[in-house]
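Notebook p. 47: complex prediction with guanosine-5'-triphosphate.
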Amino acid sequence: MDTTIEKSYSLPSTHLLPPWKYPLNITLPVGTLYFPSLDQNPPHPSALFPIVPPRSVILGPLLRQAHLLNKLVSSQTGSGKSATANTILGDKVFQSGISAQSLTKRCQKATRDWKGRELLVVDTPGLFDTKEGLPTTCKEICKCVLFSCPGPHAFLMVIPVGRYTVLEQQTVELIKATFGNSVTKHMVIVFTRREDLEDSKLDDYIANAHVSLKSFIHECGGRCYAISNRANKAEKEGQVQELMELIERMVLENARGYFSEKIYKDIEERLKQKADILKKIYADQLRNEIKLIENDGSLKSEEEKAEKIQEANKRYDEKMKNIMEEAGQNIFEYVFSLVKNTLGKIWHRLWK
Ligand SMILES: Nc1nc2c(ncn2[C@@H]2O[C@H](COP(=O)(O)OP(=O)(O)OP(=O)(O)O)[C@@H](O)[C@H]2O)c(=O)[nH]1
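Predicted complex, structure tokens below:
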């Protein structure tokens, strides 16, 4: 299985994928799957397939609340976002474990080849963590947004079985404030610690759940799934299959669309514009460089010139390979101000 991870900030390479590839993005605590629309021009790689599969899932550490949980629920650790991401990725890619503090410090993404599809999972750290503060939280959300641009197919809200406190409710409020209310149309609730249900069914658990959880499930169109990240490998793969089927149904219900509201809206366009400008700059640079080499009197033989030109072409190719990442870095401040403006309005109200 091909699993890769990038811990530092970089953009997903979806724009550069050959047409036969279609990645799936996942974000943990809130996971998101999105399908590109078929009339996209040029069509998104995944739009080229008759049955459009989820392209990206963000398995949602969109919200990390470890410090708050520590206040209210002693010895409470993470909800299992990284563990769920690892289950989906089929490998221990992200750090997961018992800790009084959030283990995941930075937004990170990893991809997996799953049944011929590229699955992109975004794991975010301490988001909405007041200990980190608003600027750090905004920065991590920005990375998450850029990782999953032009928008994820699904947000996976990861909650352990037996827990739905005021913290989870606040988290949901924050997600909605950041991404817009329609985010729930792209949301699946993933209950971790499925084994704690023992002989009970998830339906029975939900039937007896607190009204606030029932209402949240209803908002998410009844989409929920119980997962055990402690299951053996074969069982985990079976769970991933079921979860993906659920996500695919949701994506089809959403007219195969990925989540592209609010903050995602013009980011894709800006990314493209910035990338086009950079492409032009680098193409001009290459042309000038080649001209200088051709007219360089100190280079005696044609072989010498050809070698220099080849080197210049190589440098150009390298820049082109990283063009989307560079474009993302260029618009980072813009995305940051978008997120900060939105989140700043509710941050102090929710976390006071
Ligand atoms: N029994 C059981 N334990 C689980 C399950 N999922 C996660 N865990 C455990 O719960 C603990 C926390 O899981 P993480 O994946 O680190 O949780 P997280 O939400 O990413 O946590 P932070 O990154 O610290 O915020 C770890 O010890 C996991 O092994 C599950 O389905 N069953």
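Notes: The beta strands are 3-6, 23-28, 32-33, 56-58, 108-114, 117-123, 154-160, 187-192, 224-226. The radius of gyration is 22 Å.
Next step: compare against the earlier run before touching the bench.
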